[in-house]
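Recap from last week: sequence in, structure out.
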Amino acid sequence: TIPEAIRLREAGVHIFVIAINFAGDMYRQEMDDIASQPPDQNVFWVNSFSELPEVGSAVFNKLSSPDMNKDICDTNEIKCKHGGRCVAAAVTGSFRCECIQGFTGEFCEIACPSRFDVAFVIDSSVSVGPHNFGLIRNFSSSVIEKLYQISRNNKFAMITFNSEANVAFSFGRNSDLNGLKSAIAGMRYKPGGTNTALALRTAYGLLQNDYGARRSAQDVVILVTDEASNIDAQETLPAAKELKDAGTHVIAIGMDLDTAGRAAAQEVKDIASSDDRAMIKLNSYSALKGIESDVINQMCEFGRNGRK
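Predicted structure tokens:
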């Protein structure tokens, strides 16, 4: 919930929260974290629905207030950290922090000393479908854009897989952001089986220096899939182990695994690195947008630990 709220605020959306008959400090903290800052001006606590008309009037008055049109960055309320620059959103009184290289987060509070070689491995099997493939493609493009903004030292490769594995681009190509985004936009959905083992072995191959990967970089694989392997399934976990044994951090994102079954969920868990957060389960492809910051923060922590 909180990451989704942060994404909205970063996009310049002003969030009012109306909390009805809430009790407990835990819930109050969540409401404060969801709302635009400062919470005391944007969270309304009421005991019953009958109080809503009064709250509606208060919200209307705030929307009509000259304060909603002022540049919030001219006040002392916003503190972008580590040299970040406050950028005000039009009309709403919201803002975002534009971070310098090496930092990320809503307030540029997260240090991300990154030099990553990141291989995206995305499922193009028949169960995914063209619409969902497009959502995975958008997710990949957005994460790449954010990582590129954090550091120009990050490099990227892209693999799509069905019955086969296809390298859309390797680390040695598309060093600028526009080239990367154009290459991703040009990827086409090609349905087939689910040969996850071949896709992971292809990622391992790309992370060798012959394909533009760097010995000095920290290696990350981001897998997005929605079912268990059905081609050479016995080779999937050995392929994942080979990556992890080489020091690669593997983030495995499983889509709608409750529908796919227990075997699929177990396979995705076993593919992921041992960090509890490295396996991410989502109920829908539209939820990918809400985990972008989580994925990047996880990578930043990996980078701070200094592991190859």
